[in-house]
Design goal:
alpha+beta; 16% strand; 17 helices
């Protein structure tokens, strides 16, 4: 392909072969030179790789891989890890991030940016990196450290945003337009050029162009073809000025930082200066098809079935002691749903014992209830939910809000039972109460089964109660009123519009209204 395109462009009379192709794992070149120089392949390839590794690289172009990882542990197809490249991401992109979740920084296409940036940096004359990649990094919260590093490491940055994010819906999805790679992609796509000039000291100048709304795939590709060069007049580059948060496009409202945090810096800290003393993500089962069901009887049937299959694997492992687990286990998804936790339990010889008292009613999606088998050995992540709903009959109410970097507008919803992580997108939940196990419980013959088993604590902090009472000179305000005031306020269109960008990139903060009548209006609306 390289040869034929070269001859098509240069119109040479004689055919010039290209001998620079290297069959190699690019990332592995930085990890283990012996592996990429394996002469058992074929000699010419080894010679080409040796030559490449000695050559000062000034231009790196490509369409990096998009995979963030396997869909299921049953697939046995996890992305290969690269210690050197991953460590470089940790000490650069991750170190500069203030985001709570930075998992996406280890996506394969971000590794490509890191590898290429380091390779170009080896050349004192600078160079250029040009990638067609997932464009989610441009404005997502978890990529703040990545953007900050690009500013510092390069002189000029050109980003042509081709949009096409089909993980959106409704009008927003229509605005995003056609998917650049057709059915092969649901992510936004961007063409990025990173220019590193010799002797660079200042941060990069960032040039940005958005392809536009409501364009289908063919129209976008036609426009890209017509652009031809970054110097064309058809490209009206916008110069972006990053803010202190590393945001390039959607800048946050400076007033937001002056409001009161819903979430504490440290959970269960009674002296916290926030509205709530704790909060939690919704439950992540890691195996929804096994852990949830509309029928409680059917749920009991499938959980017992998986336990029997898994326990048989534990016994088989004890007899055979395989050295490699992933290729040895029974990967039949109709028998067992594997994840990292369950594989660890297998190695430890830990069997699954189904507890009849662990079947709960759960809110699986907005307005949709299912039964849940709620157990640390069966669910991937429980988070703080065991303290919010320690038993199936525990009374509680939670305000669930959209998690950070949601692809849809901010939303919130109240639930009176265990929420799934996706009731709201990666939803964070703030409780009216939380429960602590009563270790000093005194049992008698006349106690109910759960009598005195748990101590109930307020989820709303003493600090915020004091602030609100002092503001209104009233001791009639209660923590429950503050809880429902928050729920009412979070539905305010003015609030959501004013802080729309902040609510995508941070958990909510709230003001205390000047007048008690405004407070009561929000409380009554929230309670209703």
């Amino acid at each position: 392909n390289i040869e034929s395109v070269f001859h098509e462009l240069t119109k040479r009379k004689e055919y010039l072969p290209y001998d620079g192709i290297c069959l190699t794992d690019t990332f592995q070149m930085a990890e283990n030179k012996d592996a990429v120089l394996d002469k058992t392949w074929f000699g010419q390839n080894t010679e080409n790789v040796q030559k490449l590794m000695k050559t000062p690289i000034r231009v790196i172009i490509g369409n990096p891989p998009y995979s963030v990882g396997q869909k299921s542990a049953n697939d046995n197809a996890q992305n290969q890890s690269y210690k050197i490249v991953d460590n470089r991401i940790t000490e650069t992109y991750a170190k500069g991030s203030k985001a709570t979740s930075i998992k996406a920084l280890y996506d394969a296409y971000i590794k490509a940016f890191r590898w290429a940036s380091d390779k170009i940096a080896e050349n004192e004359n600078g160079g250029v990196v040009g990638f067609i990649s997932n464009g989610a990094w441009i404005d997502t919260n978890g990529m703040d450290g990545f953007r900050k590093c690009l500013e510092k490491e390069f002189s000029e940055i050109y980003v042509l945003n081709l949009r096409g994010n089909q993980r959106t819906s409704g009008e927003l999805s229509r605005k995003e337009g056609g998917k650049i790679f057709g059915s092969g992609s649901r992510t936004p796509i961007a063409i990025t050029l990173l220019v590193k000039k010799p002797g660079q000291t200042a941060n990069a100048t960032i040039h940005y162009h958005d392809i536009g709304d409501y364009l289908d795939r063919e129209k976008k590709l036609k426009m890209v073809s017509e652009f031809k060069s970054i110097s064309t007049r058809k490209l009206e580059w916008q110069t972006l000025t990053p803010d202190k948060n590393g945001d390039w496009l959607s800048h946050r409202n400076s007033c937001f930082d002056e409001l009161i945090n819903l979430a504490p810096e440290t959970k269960f800290n009674n002296s916290t200066q926030s509205v709530f003393v704790t909060y939690s993500l919704g439950i992540a089962s890691g195996r929804d098809a096994w852990a949830y069901n509309y029928s409680e009887d059917k749920l009991k049937e499938v959980t017992q079935s998986m336990a029997v299959s898994y326990n048989a694997e534990v016994e088989r492992y004890g007899k055979e002691k395989p050295s490699v687990i992933d290729s040895w286990i029974n990967a039949d998804e109709t028998k067992i749903s594997w994840n990292r936790n369950l594989k660890d339990d297998l190695v430890k010889g830990h069997k699954l014992i189904i507890d009849e008292s662990h079947y709960f009613l759960s809110k699986y999606r907005p307005y949709t209830y299912q039964f849940l088998y709620f157990d640390k050995d069966f669910n991937a992540m429980l988070y703080q939910n065991t303290k919010l709903f320690p038993t199936p009959t525990t009374k509680n109410v939670l305000i669930c809000v959209s998690g950070i970097s949601a692809s849809k507008p901010f939303a919130c919803l109240i639930t009176d039972c265990i929420p799934d992580l996706q009731v709201m997108f990666n939803g964070q939940c703030f409780p009216l109460y939380w429960y602590e196990e009563n270790k000093n419980q005194q049992k008698s013959l006349f106690d109910d089964e759960n009598s005195g088993e748990y101590i109930r604590h307020d989820g709303v902090s003493d600090w915020i109660l004091k602030q609100v009472r002092e503001r209104y000179h009233s001791k009639n305000i209660t923590k429950e009123m503050i809880f429902y005031f928050v729920y009412g306020l979070l539905h305010s269109e003015d609030y959501r519009t004013t802080f729309a960008v902040d609510l995508k990139k941070s958990l909510p903060r709230i003001p205390i209204p000047d007048s008690v009548s405004d407070f009561m209006a929000f409380y009554n609306a929230g309670k209703k």
